[in-house]
């Protein structure tokens, strides 16, 4: 169906939480968060655990290598979203990021980094987390949506995206920063760029209506189209259903676009047709996880590194 692409990693890291709950420390600037008053905290945590498990198994069935790490603590409610605290890059590079909320700073795990060094070829690890002491934040591939082909880092301004940190990252990792403002229905800044934007190999999903500056909106669309991509414009309602929070991965039979069942249901037939020209849609029910204001993209930290030894088969890897 599709050629291999540097945009679509073959492997991912997932964190399986044992005590999941929406994070009260992030609710003030994350309008996508919600509460479920009908279920107990234990029921919500159990359901979230099951959603991560089913998604990891489904990805492995599709031929994606999945490294699952357990989080048994009660101090890191957003640990299910590892893409915010680290990212990996071709050439053997890893970045560790400064996090806005104090309890999210505890999500960083040395065992994840050590696994990457053991299983993949890692040349260096650049740690930006010290910027937290200066109240400077850049929450990984939540704050940035990276075009690995065009080498552009798209970033919406927010509490979680500091332009100084962004410039530093782009200098180290050879990306061009493209910063813009994006707001929700009430005019509130979008907390993470990856809820309104997804970049695949041959297409891009973009909540254009949420970028109020028309000129900047046109510049972003033009820049994406320069790479040969078809830009699929998403409505505000689709963004609110997490349709922009998707990720393209490389599976056994070609590329897959992983997104939530809610996001998939919000796509119209023409949008589906465009995506399926280059990748298979792979939806998962993560409705409980979505209470925390993030969805499938946030749950997956893509691994853009070379393996040390080739896998003979794709297996769900559960880290002890």
Automatic annotation (TrEMBL):
It holds the Pfam family DDAH_eukar. The keyword Transferase applies. GO terms for molecular function: transferase activity. Keywords: Transferase. InterPro entries: Amdntrnsf_FN0238 (IPR014541). The keyword Transferase applies. It comes from the Bacteria. This is Amidinotransferase.
